[in-house]
Design brief:
This protein is of the alpha/beta class. The protein has two domains: 323 residues, Rossmann fold; 127 residues, no CATH class. It is built from 15 helices and 14 strands. Strand 9, helix 4 and strand 10 form a beta-alpha-beta unit. The longest helix is centred in the first third of the chain and has 22 residues. The chain is globular, with a radius of gyration of 24 Å. The N terminus is likely disordered. This is Carboxypeptidase. InterPro entries: AB_hydrolase_fold, Peptidase_S10. GO terms for molecular function: carboxypeptidase activity.
């Protein structure tokens, strides 16, 4: 009996110790490894640093620690002219893993050319990485990736909200740039999805409160950025995305189906702005003839029936579209990438049971990063890498990030913005992204510093091999075009 008790006590204590180890994060850590890759046919040597850096509270004590991965090209001696790209993903509550090992970094997932997972999981060299032209820092906000709160008494509101997220991350970035000696470097922020909300606010915060100025911000699959539009404009703006998706699934009439997307999408965009939105605004005062005409055109462009459009009063919700477009085939389409198809428990209903795009992606990323972190970066930890971490409730009040980005641009003549959108992204659609641009610069006086790029894929356009190349090249050109000549003054003529 005593032997059993001793064994039980030993196993209990061992389990307790292991549990404690898993819950802890090193507040400060750093592991450096050396590598070489080939980008655009040329050898690029680089150093990778995987580590943690603290977030400090008002009393100067650590309250959290953020995991990061930092890539530096090692055959460049002058860092003052070497661009630094600081990368965030979204959620909120999502780690930086997505763009890190599938887009801009030196390695990418082993997936097929259209983005579907392959086994065995793992990574391979990324011949299109932007590491040839810029060093890259990937940051995991609190409770994402390996990042954790270290002060159990800290108020969660310190981290989990639009403005608190921006506030503590700006301070963290300031510390990192100082430690890394990168104040002189041309600097860029890139964010994806909710990460666009984050970087739009960050660039304004860093410029106004930390006096750190940037050359560029890249918004990948942007959110609404707090820009007012209301349900009528927001929902109406989805029509061009519906048209692109219906074209991809060959659900349009022959006159449109036989055209290329680039040929007829401008027509759909013009209809949305000039006819659809004004018609929906009229509501019950819209004449029967006008209603019939608008519904007929909407059905023609969207691949839906006119009856369905009329039943929804000319405003088709996205959930319904994903369920309805291929309902006759018994299939649904993906939210984040509408090229992906799935099927539900039942063909009835007004929304799909799940997003076939996201479920496909999740099981490729998680194991691949675990392999990469341990075997390539030599970063060893028992912490769980949170693809999606516990960050709720998230305070979404007082969001002005899109307007703040416009202010940052007006106050910094060096600052450029590029938007990248997937034409088949139904989560953050491309036409609402264009609408953002128009409102960030309502005067049109900064049009030479704001650009938009579209790709024939979804939310993570880089998962498609063809778009991985073109989208990275677009970033490369954006960086090169937003660099300024030595001694060029930041002023308006």
């Amino acid at each position: 009996m005593r032997k059993f008790s001793f064994t039980f006590l030993f196993m209990f204590c061992l389990g307790w110790v292991q549990a404690q180890v898993e819950r802890q994060i090193e507040i400060e850590s750093k592991v450096e490894t050396s590598h070489e890759t080939t980008i655009k046919g040329k050898k690029v040597p680089y150093k990778a640093t995987a580590g943690t850096q603290p977030v400090w509270g008002e009393d100067g004590k650590p309250i959290a620690s953020l995991f990061y991965t930092y890539y530096e090209r090692t055959d460049v001696s002058d860092k003052s002219t070497r661009p630094l790209v600081i990368s965030f993903n979204g959620g909120p509550g999502s780690a930086s893993i997505w763009m890190h090992i599938a887009y801009t970094g030196p390695v990418v997932l082993k997936i097929d050319d259209e983005g579907y997972p392959l086994q065995p999981y793992g990574v391979k060299s990324n011949p299109h990485s932007i590491l040839d032209v810029a060093d890259i820092l990937y940051v995991d906000p609190v409770n994402t990736g390996y990042s954790r709160i270290v002060d159990p008494e800290v108020d969660r509101k310190t981290f989990f909200g639009i403005n608190s997220d921006i506030r503590y991350l700006a301070d963290w970035v300031n510390t990192f740039v100082t430690r890394a000696g990168r104040w002189a470097s041309p600097k860029y922020l890139i964010g994806e999805s909710y990460g666009t909300t984050r970087v739009a606010g960050l660039v304004a915060r860093l410029q106004s409160s930390h006096w750190m100025y940037f050359n560029g911000v890249i918004l990948v699959s942007p959110t609404e950025l707090g820009i007012e539009r209301g349900d009528i404009i927001h929902t109406s703006n989805y029509l061009p995305y519906y048209a692109a998706t219906a074209w991809y699934h060959e659900a349009l009439d022959a006159d449109l189906q036989n055209q290329d997307l680039d040929e007829f999408l401008p027509e759909v965009e013009a209809f949305t702005i000039n006819e659809l939105i004004p018609a929906v605004v009229k509501g019950g005062t819209l004449s029967a003839a006008e209603r019939e005409e608008i519904a007929t055109k909407y059905a023609h462009y969207s691949g839906l029936s006119k009856q369905v459009v009329l039943e929804h009063n000319l405003l088709i919700p996205t959930n319904f579209f994903w369920k309805e477009l291929l309902r006759d085939e018994g299939m649904t389409i993906g939210r984040l990438d509408s090229r992906y198809k799935g099927f539900d428990y039942a063909g009835t209903g007004s929304r799909p049971d799940f997003d076939p795009a996201l479920t496909s992606w999740n099981h490729a990323f998680a194991p691949s990063f675990q392999i990469y972190a341990r075997e390539h970066l030599n970063y060893q930890t028992d912490l769980t890498y949170n693809l999606f971490g516990p960050v709720h409730p998230w305070d979404r009040s007082n969001e002005n990030t899109g307007y703040d980005l416009g202010t940052a641009m007006r106050s910094n003549p060096y600052l450029h913005v590029m938007v990248q959108s997937g034409l088949y992204d139904g989560g953050t659609d491309f036409f609402n992204a264009k609408y953002n641009m128009w409102q960030i610069d309502p005067t049109g006086r900064m049009s030479d510093r704001i650009s938009w790029k579209g790709y024939r894929s979804g939310h993570m356009m880089y998962l498609r091999a063809e778009d991985l190349e073109t989208s990275n090249e677009d970033i490369r050109e954006f960086i090169q075009n937003s660099m300024v000549a030595p001694d060029m003054p930041a002023k308006y003529d």
